[in-house]
């Protein structure tokens, strides 16, 4: 009996090897001690080849951030949800994706590097901010879809998206950056998403004015 022919994946390109080597070296030695010679040696390329791909070490760090950010699978533009239940499902799926992918240890390592180098290399911080904007835009677009479908009340979609993300993360992001907590597992992700979606709808459901319950609670306190 003939066995199916195995598909051999293409070997990584020089650029892929350099990015992998750069990220590993940055994480092991820190940005300051990660020389281009060490990165080139680990990537099995000459320094001439390395500089043909990247102008300098800062460009490599920025590319590492952009490469990792590009791996976060955010949904393309979706049609407006047909019901409240459909919107809840879409918002929950997006929230779980954000927690799972952004909370990944590799992504957190990139965040720490970017924070460390933000003053010396402003373009690195700018690259990280661009990645964060993609996440916020995905949530903002979905909020706008919920408003168009009559599920959410009228209001500033960007502010409402920021509210959802704040409910979703709480203090988890800071804890992950400080390494005082591990990346959330499926059970915690489900719990956080369920709580964030429930509280978000309480504040912004089209059934009542945005923030009405919150203002009532403040007034009664």
List key phrases describing it:
mainly alpha, Arc Repressor Mutant, subunit A, Tetracycline Repressor, domain 2, 2 domains, disordered C terminus
Structure description:
By secondary structure, this protein is mainly α. The chain has two domains: 14-54, Arc Repressor Mutant, subunit A (Orthogonal Bundle); 80-220, Tetracycline Repressor, domain 2 (Orthogonal Bundle), CATH 1.10.357.10. The chain has helices spanning 14-29, 36-43, 47-53, 57-69, 84-102, 105-117, 122-148, 157-169, 172-177, 186-204, 212-220. The radius of gyration is 22 Å and the shape is elongated. It starts with 13 loop residues before the first helix and ends with a helix.
